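Anyone up for a design puzzle?
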């Protein structure tokens, strides 16, 4: 027990503290921006980020992963806030947490094994592109010579400072140096304070002021369900990516429950629903964060900064944070996936590109992943269906044909299965050896029915051999060729 606590919390104290400081600074403008996107007060996103980070540090299934208010979740809240107000958003946040806990208890985290590597790569690349696009308004709408110069200087510090020393995270150095330069020279550039008013008090317990009736449930349930699904999807995808970055494993079902508990906590202190953030999680890992302590401290430092050090935090130039996020987008994008497009199977490349395009054009990660998973399933079904082989031999007396079926028979290969038989051949008996085949669904059973019935219509006796137990169960349950009323189906 003590060894586990030491490993999960205190095995990397120095790296976790420095990483948490960088993450907290980068979280502030994002939380404010996501609040504005959801059309709520900035403190709603800031309180949510603090609460979700602190709670998931204890309840989450992935150490060193950062969870907070996110853009994907904020987009789903806009209509609810416009039509019903903040109180209904807080109620929806509570219900989101409950649904996510249910997802975890039913072990829906195991569904991640159905998400192919091509989908994960597409998800990562799309998120990198979206992170980069999100920085462009700071350069195009609020850009000046000073802004461009500060951003380039920030990138130079981030990439060159590690050659001097890796003791201090270069993103933290970038923030300190650019803030000092902006203050000393008095540059007229946007700062964190320009993003919105920072809260001046600690959060308090706040039960949503909504009627507890069925009508309220009808209003909030569709939004809560969408938030729960998108939140879990993003969190599990991010956990998979952090697993790869740190070469460690994580508990996906515990992550579902942990995210749910965190969202309930957020709703009870006036915060919006949130989930894992791939950008901040990568910043944390790249800056040296490895344990749950980094996640806990990121939330605590965030709250301390916005409440007690708001004047200092407000002075941070947005150019510094833009430089950090550009670094995150460059580091997040899988450049090898572009180089390997010609090497990889065409189906894998199509899945990856489709995931990227759908995600970027809809700005909804859930849509992109859904399209990627569906395409992966279709390509897999087609590939497995083509593996099936049917060969045959004719007996020496010419009265009997023996067919041998090898492979998987299901909805994708059903027509191919039927087409492999010669129903017009003048033989007395056909034996179909199924000992090396497996029938997966009712479409496969229907195809077997067609074969048997067509042979019988031609007056040919049919014998099925070697059907395995699982396939035989389906045949017994769904096949029609061995039922008493089959003569009607045969047209006799």
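Challenge accepted. My sequence:
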């Amino acid at each position: 027990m003590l060894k586990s606590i030491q490993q999960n919390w205190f095995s990397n104290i120095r790296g976790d503290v420095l990483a948490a400081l960088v993450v907290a600074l980068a979280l502030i403008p994002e939380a404010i921006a996501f609040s504005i996107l959801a059309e709520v007060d900035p403190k709603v996103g800031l309180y949510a980020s603090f609460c979700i980070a602190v709670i998931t540090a204890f309840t989450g299934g992935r150490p060193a992963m950062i969870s907070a208010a996110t853009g994907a979740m904020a987009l789903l809240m806009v209509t609810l806030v416009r039509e019903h107000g903040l109180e209904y958003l807080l109620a929806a946040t509570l219900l989101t947490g409950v649904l996510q806990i249910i997802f975890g208890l039913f072990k829906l985290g195991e569904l991640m094994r159905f998400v192919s590597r091509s989908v994960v790569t597409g998800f990562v690349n799309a998120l990198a592109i979206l992170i980069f696009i999100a920085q462009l308004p700071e350069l195009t709408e609020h850009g000046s010579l000073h802004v461009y110069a500060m951003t380039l200087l920030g990138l130079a510090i981030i990439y060159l400072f590690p050659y001097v020393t890796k003791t201090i995270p270069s993103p933290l150095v970038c923030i300190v140096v650019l803030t000092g330069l902006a203050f000393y020279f008095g540059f007229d550039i946007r700062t964190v304070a320009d993003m919105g008013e920072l809260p001046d008090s600690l959060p308090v317990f706040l039960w949503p002021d909504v009627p507890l009736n069925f009508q309220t449930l009808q209003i909030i349930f569709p939004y809560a369900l969408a938030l729960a699904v998108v939140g879990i999807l993003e969190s599990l995808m991010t956990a998979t990516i952090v697993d790869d970055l740190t070469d460690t494993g994580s508990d996906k079902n515990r992550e579902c429950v942990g995210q749910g508990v965190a969202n309930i906590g957020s709703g009870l202190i006036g915060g919006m629903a949130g989930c894992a953030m791939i950008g901040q999680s990568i910043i944390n890992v790249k800056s040296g964060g490895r344990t749950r302590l980094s996640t806990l401290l990121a939330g605590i430092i965030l709250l301390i900064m916005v409440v007690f050090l708001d004047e200092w935090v407000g002075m941070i130039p947005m150019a510094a944070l833009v430089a950090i996020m550009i670094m995150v987008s460059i580091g997040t994008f899988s450049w090898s996936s572009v180089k390997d497009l010609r090497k990889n199977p065409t189906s894998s490349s199509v899945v990856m590109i489709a995931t990227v395009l759908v995600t970027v054009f809809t700005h909804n990660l859930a849509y992109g992943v859904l399209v990627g998973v569906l395409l992966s399933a279709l390509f897999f079904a087609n590939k497995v269906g083509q593996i099936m082989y049917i060969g045959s031999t004719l007996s020496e007396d010419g009265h009997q044909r023996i067919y041998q079926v090898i492979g998987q028979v299901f909805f994708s290969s059903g027509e191919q299965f039927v087409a492999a038989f010669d129903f017009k051949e003048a033989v007395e008996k056909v034996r179909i050896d199924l000992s090396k085949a497996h029938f997966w669904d009712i479409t496969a059973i229907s195809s077997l029915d067609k074969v048997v019935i067509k042979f019988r219509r031609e007056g040919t006796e049919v014998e099925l051999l070697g059907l395995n137990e699982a396939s035989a169960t389906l045949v017994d349950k769904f096949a029609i060729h061995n039922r008493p009323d089959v003569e009607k189906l045969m047209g006799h």
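A detail worth pointing out: The chain has 21 helices and six strands.
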